[in-house]
Amino acid sequence: MSLKSKFKSFFALEDEYEYNEEEYFEEEELEPVKPTRSAAKQNVVSLQSVQKSSKVILYEPRAYAEAQEIADHLKSRRAVVVNLQRIQHDQAKRIIDFLSGTVYAIGGDIQRIGTNIFLCTPENVDVSGNISDIVTDDELSEKRW
Asked: CA 20 to CA 112: how far, in whole Å?
C-alpha cells in the first residue's frame, strides 16, 4: 500500500479525483527535489545568540585578587564598569593589564570612560561614541557640586 493510499484512507478521500502519477511525470521526467542539509541549517538559530537581557556589572575592586572575578564576568559575556579610584596606583595598573589580556583573549574591548574608570566589554557588546576628557586636574581638586 502506497503512502498516498494510506493518506486517502485516513482522511476518507477515496471519492476524489485520482490521477495516475506515471502519466503526470511521463511528460517532463522531473524528480522531486530534496532539501539539502545546508538549507535546513539556515533556519537553525543558536541559543547562545539569543539573550533575554544583558547585564552591566559595576565593580570597585579593593585588591588585585578581585581582577579574576571581573574577568569571569567578561567570560560570561557581561559588560563591566571598573572603578579604580579607591585602589593603589600600582595595583590599578596590574588590574588593567590583567583585564586587557582577558579582553583581548575574548575579542572584546576596553575603554577609559573617566578618571580611573574603565569599561570592559565582551565581543557581543558594541560601544558607540566616546567621552572626552574635558575635566582637568584643577577642576577635580575643587568640588563642583
From this structure: 74
